[in-house]
Each structure stands twice: as C-alpha cells, then as structure tokens.
Amino acid sequence: MRRTEAVNATRKDIQALRALAVGLVVLNHLWPARLPGGYVGVDVFFVISGYLISKHLLGELERSNRINLGQFYSRRIRRLLPAATLVASVSLLAAWALLPFSRWLAIAQETIASVLYVENWVLAAKSVDYSAHNEAASTVQHYWSLSVEEQFYLVWPLLFLGLSLAAIRFRLRRRALLALGVVLVCALALTFCIWFTYSNRSPAYFVTPARAWEFGAGALIALGGPHAMAALRLRLPDHHLAISGTAQYLGYGLIAYSALAYNEQTFFPGFAAVVPVAGTVLVIASGPNSPFWSPNQLLSARPIQLLGDVSYSLYLWHWPLIVLAPALVGHSLGTRDKAVLLVAAVALAYLSKKFIEDPGRTKLLRGAKPIRVFAAMAVAAAVVAALCGGLLLNFGKAQAAEAAKLESLIGEPCHGARSLDPRNNCSDPFGAAKVANIGPNEAPGFDAPECHPATDPIVFEDLKILRECDFTGGAKPEATVWLVGDSHAEQWKSALYELARLHKWKLKESLVGGCPYIDVKRVAFMGADATDPHSQQRCLQWSRQVTERIVQERPDMVFASSFGAAEAVDDGTGRSQLDQYNDAVTKRFLDWTRAGSKIYVLRDIPLTLHHSSPDCVALNHQRPTECANARSAALVPDPVANAARGMAMPSVKVLDLSDQFCDDQNCYAVIGGLQVYADNDHAARSYIRSLVPVLSQRFNEARQ
C-alpha cells in the first residue's frame, strides 16, 4: 500500500511534523519532568520553515529570475502578524488584570520586544544577567523562536537573490551555487553554534546565528531533495519506498530520542541539536510517499493533521495560559488543571486559526501594495506599544503607592522581624502581608547614595567589580570594611549599610552573582550544569583578585556570604561538598586573617524551594502560611558557615539569623506583614532592613 498526493496539496508528513513539534513543546512546558527534552520541537519547526521558505524562493527564482521582496515580506506579515499580535495583546491585558504588579514591568518590556521580533536577543541578554535569572517568565517568553524565525525571513531572500544574480552574472548553475552558499552558511553557523554553546551556553540557546544552520538544513532539502529522490527511484525502483519508510522511522526515532533523553543540563543547541535536526531532515527528505508500514501512515490521521493545522496558533496560546492560569484558579496547577488548560489551548488555537490566522493570510489587505501592509504592521506594533506604555505607567504608580505604604509601616513594633520579638506582643507574626512585593525595589541589587565605583577597581574582561562607600558622614572612619560574595551577600546590603552608618565605616564591596569566592571551580548552580570554562574562569579570576586586594589593603573586617547550598564545586578529590568547601573556605579565610582582618560570615537564608515565593504569597494572600516550608527542608547546611565555625578562630565569626526566618517547625514567606523573599532565592530588601536591630545586636556580641 502506498500514499500519493497531488503536487500542490499540503504534505501530510510535514503537517505531522508540525503536530509533533508543537506537541513536544506544549507537553514539555506542562510536564517538564516527563518530557524533559521537548524543547527540541522548536528545532523541528526551524527545519520545516527553512525547507518551505527556500522551496518557495527557489520556485520564484526559477519562474522569473527574481524575488519580489515586497510581496514576500508582506505575505509573511499577513501570515504571522494577526495571530501573534492578538495573542500578545490579550496576554498583556490579562496579565494586567490577573498578575501582581511586580510582574508587569518585565511583561511590558518583553511584549514590546516580541512585536518587534527581537525577543530572542532580550532573553539572550537576560540569560547572562545574574540579577534576571530569578525573574518570573513573561507571557510572551515563547516569542523568542518567532523572533529568530522572522530574522531568518528577513535575511534569507536576500541571500537567495544575491546568489541567483551571481549565477546569472557568471553563467553558473543556479541550484549548484545556491546549494554551495547554503552549505557554507550551515558550516559557519554550526561551527559557531558548537563553539558558542560550550563557551556561553545560556545566550547560545537564543541567538539567531547559533540557529541559522537549522534553517539551512531545511533549505538543503529544498535544493537537493527532489533530485535525490528522483535518482533513488531510478536506481532502486522496487525499493525506494522501503528506503523512504526506513528513513521516516529513523527520523522520528531521532526526534523522539532527543525529546526523551535531553534535559535542562544538556548543552543545547551545540552538537546535541544535530540529532533532532537530522531526524527532521530525514522525514522531509524521504518525501510524501511512504509504504503502508511507515509512521507517516499513522500520522496522517485527521486528529494529527488538525493539530498540525493549528500548530502555530497553539504555540502562541499555550504559554500565556500556563503563565496566567495559576492566578485565575488561585493555586498552582495540578494534573487536572493542566489537562483542562491543554484542551482550552487547543480550542483557542482552532478558533484563532479559523477566524484570525486564515482570514489574515487570505483576506486581510488582499491585493494591497506592500507599503500598505508594512504600514498596517507599524500601526499594530504602535497599538501594542501603547498598551505596554499604559501597563508601565500603572506599574510605576502601583510601585510608588506600595513603597509609600512600606515607609509608613517601618516604625511599627510588629513590622517585619520585630514581630518575632516576644516583648512586642504581636498576635499573628505570620499573617497576611500588608505590602505587596514591589518588584525591582525588593531585589538585592541597589546602591546607597554614599556608594560609587572605586577609583582603583578590580578589573577583568570588561567588568569593574568594586564599589566603595563612605558612611562616615565626614567623620574619621571607625573601621575599614569589605563585603564579598555573590548575590546572597548582596542581599544583606540594606541591613549592612545601616550598620555601616551607625558605626561610621568606610566600606568596599565586590560582588559577582553566581560566583563563590573560593579558589575551586564551580561545576553546578541550582542543579544546572555550570562547567563552561568561561564561567569558571570568570569566577576564579575574580575570587583571586579579591583575595589579593584584601591581603594588600588589610581591612579591619570582611563580611562574606555565599549561596553555597546551591553552588556545587569540584576540587578533584571526589569528597562531599561540605568537605570540599571546608578546605577551600578555610584556605581563603586564612589568607584574609593573616592580613589582620576579622571575618564575619552571614549565614545564608533558608531556601524557598520554589514555594515560599512572591507568586505563592500572591495566590495565598490571606493564608501565607500555605507558602511556608518545613524547617528541615528549607534550612539546609550552609557550607561556608560550617567551615567558618570549624575553624574555631576568634577572628572568624558566624552571624546566624536563621531564627528570624524560621521557628522550630517552619520557615515562612511572610513575617510581620512583610514578604520575606524577593524572588525564588533572595530575601526581600525590606525584610532584611527590618533585621537591623537583631543584626546589630549579634554583631556587637560577636566582636567582643
């Protein structure tokens, strides 16, 4: 049994690939633990796009020796823009209505980036910005792949047109020159992809040059596939269907393998992306014909084909539903919730396809000149930008109002950590928050007016990692102090600055997010692989320079803290993390104490376990104890504090404020009307500020 299709009919095998691709992505987003590599569905889409667009461009060149760029771009706009603009706008308004205002800033910024099709570059920049790594996902985060695709559409016709003109000018075979040009692009892009993935893994996932070869792989099928299949039929007339069916099984198998075997720790795209790309190439290149035992026969079923038909709209709708649904139902999504969400996403995709996507492609501005289509695109982008501007304006107003409310509460006896003092007789220290999370104003990264870049900074690469602060008020400094560490040291600044003002210190701070200050390679961070050499050398170089400066300047005191519970290191011995940290921290602290400095380690805060977060508090406003974690799970050993205690030296002290976050049973998300955490692992600036009296008392006790 065999299946044939009319030349101009939609290829059912490609529709099946679309269905598979969107299914992988959606299931990965809903159940990431069950389908950890489902993100490879995006790579399947890229190969399909490269094939279809290149086939279209090649056909136009062979018919007329030209490409009508205006018509090409206007068709892409009519095909993609209506549904994308609708989903972005609806998602923006829904976020405005449903999500806490602390989420609005990032959502507005990324929505603008999405309608301008530069979302991938925004996410690439955020991926290397440690301060953004805990930022909650926006409703348009998935538009990064659409941005990559649109950038490909912008450049690819120009490449084809240029190569075609060169072929005419120098009397060369057009297909051969096009194929050679695409092969060179693929080779360069794949080389860059592999290098960049292993040197800068996080941004490599998003940047367009690292993905260009995937589109090119599809283009090569369009350029050489028909000739290859014709040759196969001529050479093996009795076996070509069997070969095609085998290639289809192998292709789908490679895609399935990558979806099941890959996960967040896989260095992707890099070499790993070759597997799903090769699988997609095999399925498309094997052609629309297949034997009865081919998987294409099963995947030609109407439900699969329908899913392929709505794949674009389903891709657009599913992610904002995932982001918005918890706020709508009032709790984290369970299995039943996710199943309902999946049905809703498919239903919305069907309606969007029928009433937005198809009419946009066939009726919207039909027959209009490209300039009118471009003008319509500009108007649509302007409308979305205006909506984003409104959201940003309201974000500013809401943030200012909550900040004013926070200031008015500071002097109250049951405010923040003060509510834990039995002398204040606070009836419900773990009750509802009185102030909403005020977004970036609660994040660790901020500067006091007394701080400015150091005149003699620690420099590596293009970064200057040293600031100096004068809290003496013009008086003689009582002490010179350094603050050293990652963002978990930085989160203590709102309390430490008050301590510095009280004691009239001159303070220097050198803080690098995600870097331990010991002379050992970091190999994992928050469970994710961190073995890329660039990141490791960056941390090692910084930590060594910090030590050299402390030894040279001999400050009176060094305050240090680190997210050691989530930063795995490897000294090559294979010992436990606590043992490795113990030796490395002891060595580092001895360098500092020999220079005459006293060291105060700020014991790290309890983990949120992705539960005691502002999102949970927003969903459980009246019952914030629902967001508490068991003390035994949240208050894990801090390897830096343990090492400091183990040194048993008068010049090395640990300031442990764990009892200001936890009682004997639980660690809390709201204390004294304040949200304890700013995000998924940092304490909120306002709560740390409420700890000043306790920190001051324990510091005075420790230095006696």
Give a written overview of the molecule:
This protein has 704 residues and is α/β, with parallel strands linked by helices. Helix content is 57%, strand content 8%. The protein is built from 25 helices and 16 strands. The strands form five sheets. It has a seven-stranded mixed sheet with strand order 1-4-6-5-9-11-13, with helices on both faces. Strands 8-7-10 form a three-stranded antiparallel sheet. Helix 1 (12-30) runs parallel beside helix 14 (311-329) and helix 5 (119-127) crosses helix 6. The protein is elongated, with a radius of gyration of 29 Å. The termini are far apart. The model is unreliable at 1-8 (pLDDT under 50).
Q: Helicity range of the residues?
A: 55-70%
Quaternary structure classification: single chain
Order of the strands making up the biggest sheet: 1-4-6-5-9-11-13
Instruction: Give the overall shape, derived from the CA principal axes.
Output: elongated
Specify the number of helices: 25
Strand content is 5-15%
Provide the low-confidence segments as ranges: 1-8
Mean pLDDT: 92
Number of strands: 16
Category from helices, strands and their pairing: alpha/beta
Radius of gyration (Å): 29 Å
Major sheet = 7 strands, mixed
Gap from first CA to last CA? 89 Å
